[in-house]
Records
---
Amino acid sequence: MATRYDKSVYVFHGTVTAAAVRLSLHLGPVRRIFVASPVAYAEAVASDTRRPVKEDQLTPHSLAFYMDVVASGTVLGANPTDSPDRVTAMLGSDFAENSLDDHSMWRDYGMVEFFWIRETPDHPWEGHHFTLQVHRLSYGGGSIVSRAIRDRYGRFDRHLRFDKLERLLGKQGVPLEDAPDVNAPTFTRHWQPASQVSVMVFRAHEEWRQRRRGDDRIGDVYTIQSSVSAEGVARDRERFGRQDSRELSGRSSSEP
């Protein structure tokens, strides 16, 4: 159940959860969504997605998973354009399904969310993008990650450091470009042109906000999102100018 307070703010009750829904191409401005109660994440998953973990597949804190997503633009082989049934076949049947209206829908798999749109209720769902809500790990821990992903990649740490991810991707020939973002300087955005995946990095705490245990650390990856086109990045550069993330992240090394 959702309570709508104005055209951009919704409060959900019950077992629905989400961060921000970015369907700007079809739904207009970003909707802000606040969770009134948390989702209890179970750990069931379809048996055909289970694969044993091999030692040579693991990197510290499952960096291999994030590297695979950024390099390939997929999650366990699921593309952002795949149908809901196809994504469920890859990630399992444990998800919370949410919708703002008849034209948009997303499924929450704990850390991973997939989003779909359709022209009318008579049309099939079309995949729009996926988002990795990495920041949820800081307070929820690795158990929120779906079993299908953990079976493949192993355990997940509460924090993903951007400098380490960027360095390892660079060694694999997967560079990240700075991309301007409206949320700077609190966040910086970094973009992989081939996979069209962007990485949002937390850079500064709000001065008014009291720090709490489980908060994100400066320099942590906040989200990883697919389907960020070259045209979209070009428009942002024209609108905001070319932002140098090194200048905006001057405090990023102040926290471990």
Note: DSSP finds eight helices and twelve strands in the chain.
---
Amino acid sequence: MGRRNRTARQLGDRPRSRSNRRDNESAPPSSGDSDDEAPADPVKALGYSPENQTVMLQTAMCIMNPTRSENRHSPLSAAPGNPPKRKRICLKRVMVDFLIGLFLDQVNRVYEMIHPVSFQTRYNAWWESQDRCDLEGNAALTADDEDFGLLVLRICLVSTQYLPHPKYPTTGILESTPKSTQRWLYTLADQVEKSQSPMRRPSLVTIQHRFYHICYLKNSSKIRESWFALSDAVKDAHELGLHLKDPGIPLSELEMELRRRAFWNLYAWDRFMCTYLGRWPLIPEEYCDVELPHDSLQAYFVSPYILTPFTDRLFHIKTARFMSAFMSPPSWKTDQYDPVIVADFAQRLQELIMDQLPPAYQLIGPDTSWDASEPAIVQKRQTLYLMLFGTKTLLYKGFVDPWKILSGDKKMLPPTPPTGLAASHQRTVVESTCRVIEVITELYHLSHSDDTRASERLFLLPVSLVESIATLSMYLLSVQTGERKPLRYIMEISPGTHLRSTYEIFVDAFALLRKQAQRSVIAKRGLKVLEKLHDMLHQASRDSSLLPQGGDTVIATGGFSGVPMAPDKTSQPGFSLESFLAPQAASVVFPEWMPLVGIGDRSWFFDDGPVFDGFSV
């Protein structure tokens, strides 16, 4: 069908300063942990012992060394247009080396924005410039060193979100708890950024540190703030010309590849925000001619086929482009209910993305011969599967409720179930959702232990789990109400159908959500939203072979209103529920958010505070 027209948000002019941030953004957001910890000494949180505290400012929020003049002043009170020259960014190297090592080993695999070899060279040079400033007394950091220092801080911040980690014990490295260290690193990074000259020109390092700020906010469930940070990064990328195939300046292939990776990682998150959260696209695709990353750096292996650390990310980007072309335009609001159009789009997804996967990432029978030597491939594979099955689920989402029962329409229900393509699409969306839950479960298992806080646990996994449970809920309610029979009765008369296995997966997924709610603020919110719905479906589906229950059997219709009945009556031959259930169909009251689940837009979960009694992440 060709490239579909899109509405793009134009990049407006505004000052380079970030003074438009919300007042409360200066406070470091929670990383999603539910633990409450007492504030630690800020100097110790940064790795300083009491005898070294003289290098810090006299304020309790010590951020940086001032110049060695008698007229000392704090950067917190400096005039916005005349920031003080900075000698160095006060950090203890043993702590920073530890967090950078964790990043390169565990975190960088997610986006592969950083080239480890070139980064390590620049990192060592940055420390030398820090030491030189100390020796020369009056020397100040250059703007490039400030930018790189901010990148170091943002990387360290994201690394703290992975702590505790079984491979990275912090004893003797951090002189405070990981959470306290995270808070003070956030404050330090925030103050360094605010003190930068508003007239400075962005560099690739600027884009990188903004991107990892986006990641930190996203992992902290601060989706709105993450979008604001994305806007800043996109404006800098535009000024730097990352969207251009030929930026007009001499660059090495390595520099061009890193620019391409930076741009397309921003693009992928922008399209995620657009497709799933209902935001306007910040990057207008029609104005960008930059090539996709060439995927030619640091190959894992080159025979019998080439696989690099960025290969999986390249397919994430291609999938984001597919969503932008087919599932983001305004026409999708109606096209998603057309079975012929959806079938055509699904065929394109299969041909353009899934059929092109290399053997190590194929959906069926992947090549696992390199998993032992390159453990990152295992997690990359499952994360890519989550993206692909999630996209497939979203593509078919309009058919999870083919009767349109949950759309709020109170008209008479159709007399027959869906047939043909509509019925096939309904089966596909349920199967894809179940595969998503299977992948989520495996990714939680790959996180090594319940105490590990990998970034996927903070955002990607819980939000996908909540959405998948909501989708299965919608399907089960649709079947129950459309058939005018309780789930238990349907499963008893059709024991060979996939309904029973789907309900079992739903129950297991909800148990996983309940467990993760103790560790993730998103899972906690999802539990609050879905718990009542789960209880109602549980009540409607009582069956001794699925869940141990005692007492009377409750027969419920789509409105969740139950009437106790003798346990043996529902199994009697010829027992008719139609006259009993039909009068209640008109009084069905579904959750206020339920119609929104069917359109694939996750903004109902993050933005609609009144629906969730003001509960917010």
Note: The chain has two domains: 23-68+79-241+254-268, 336-532+580-612.
---
Amino acid sequence: MGDLKDKLQKSRPFTTQKIELNFFNYSALHHRSITLPEPLSADVFFDEIGLVQQAVFTEPDDQSAWFYYRWLLTSMVELVESSAEDASGFLKSQVQWLYELLEMESEVK
């Protein structure tokens, strides 16, 4: 099992390359989700949130990034279980960027 995990983690740069070429590559986003360590570290989590925010601001109508974002938020529960204050602060920051997106893309629903 450890060998498979190592192979998956080594393929993460490939998924990064594919996502940077096309943020809306659902296959690359899905594959990326299985290459990430479990549980997610805070650094990895925030890097992935940044990746999703870039994708969403680029094309808010595309569902690929939203599905990945939803998965990340689900993963966040394990990351911040120990601190409700940290979770609250993070969620407030997410609401803020969603409001910014809504202001910029008011016709997108």
Note: The CA atoms of residues 95 and 101 lie 10 Å apart.
---
Amino acid sequence: MFDVHVGKQILIAKDGARCHFGLTKGKDIDVHVNLSLKFVCEFNGGTSDANMATPPPLTYSLSLFLIFSLHRCVFGKYIEGTLRTYENWAFLTRFCFLSEDGKFEFEIEYPLEYAVESLLLYYDSPDQWPAVYKSGKNCTEMLKPLKVENFQFVNLTSLDDLSGCQVVREQNDQAYYRCKEMRSFRSARERWWFIAIANCESQKGLFLDYKIKMTNGLPGDFWHEHFSADEFYILRVDIIFFALNVLLCFFAFLEAVELKARQLLHVTYKLFVTSLILQCVGVLFLVLAYARYGVDGVGWPGIKLTGELLESCSEIIFVLMLLLVAKGYTITRGRLRQGSSVKLTLFMCAYCLAYATLFIYQQQNFDPGEVLYLYESPPGYGIVSLRLIAWVSFGYSVFFTLKHYPEKNSFYLSLLVFFTLWFVAGPMVILLAAYVIPDWIREKTVNAVELSVTFLGHMVFLILTRPSAANDNFPYHVRTTQIGIMENSYNGTIGNNHLDAFGHHPYAPSAPLADETSQTVPNQTPGPPQPYRRTPAEIFTVATSAEMTRMGRLPPLKPAGKNDNSFPHHAPGEPRQLLQE
């Protein structure tokens, strides 16, 4: 039997061979491994099984343990496993119970020679679990906070009527205790309860098989039964935000179709749509994982982890898009300077590495004996720092873009004000979750706030870039075809646009009348001279060099008027007389 218990101890057993490890908290643990391997892993309260017919080498077994630990089961109602250790005190699991509605059922078996083992129930008051866990106290001292009158101490013996234990003998005349009982919890509020096992008098340590079921509702209550109290409403909130993200995707696709028809579907908008899709799919995966968890109390841990990864990828791409837009990419320039490109690439690599490290750290190093927020770790604090650096870079870039293109202030000032709040909101939520929000409501509160912040960020950018007549903030005025021509031209220039600096247009105009009444063209019919009219070549056409030479002899145009609102509400080349608004 290959049994892995994550908590105070980690244990592996092998027939006929013994190994010695120092794996947790500086304490040595003896390990056994059976010839027929079966994994029964308890990670944050769930189980994971896999069978192997051939015993791999020991080093390969440890590698498999690391791989399996990357797919932890979600923290929840049902755990089972085998614990064997030379320690006299060991942590099993934790759960956030409701007052009176919380139910704790256990089934424990252990040999009589290890008697008497005791089941310990600590709660989250400062003088209880925090006072004993990782405190360096011995076994006897760790029992002192428990109160027998509160049924926090259960002796697993047939002499204790409340333990539900009886002596059972097998055919080989080996005797062991089998204990099966249920407890309910009554307290002033929701509390975290921590389950441990101990036998301070034992010279052999601890050895037991256990099955533990923890619930917070009546059987069949989909929304409450299997969920820890701190997870209540997470599924409902995820469903709501999934629906909202689907609506955002729908409107973003409509805008993308419009922009593509007008040759204004730039890379930055494509990045925005990609981020939005990843967020939508990530939330969908979380909905599926929590829905399955509501049915069986185990869920789909791999699907849940995938959803969290997709949400992280969505944030990374969205931050990249914001930094590119702040630098004016596809809005005031067609390419970044080499130095800016290198810096941005290195920064985004660091951002991706920080997130990858965070997830690996969470899977490998988070102690289930502590109620920790995802970002309460060195990689988490690194992400907070990078987010603040991204905010400073964002503001710095917007400042210099506006300095060179003041006519874009309508778009960039709106962008700067809102996304300054967006960048700061992430670190603020992390700090509040780590140091202010109580543990028993933290997960559901942070989940709702994080989804809200992400949704608002996508929605505001969608509004700012909508190609609508009422949108004075619309940022794009150079078409994608023009950028392609500039990239292939000899000097990166077409008309008054250059790859490194587009022409100055606050809002791309549509064939304005030039107020150059002094410039006339010859009359072909009797009457007063007619003002000279023409369409700016750099906006609507890609002219050949010969055409540009001929146009060079025509009178120059004044800068486009800021009050023109007709562009980009028509496709390129449509007759002007059909577009009067």
Note: The first strand starts at residue 2 and ends at 5.
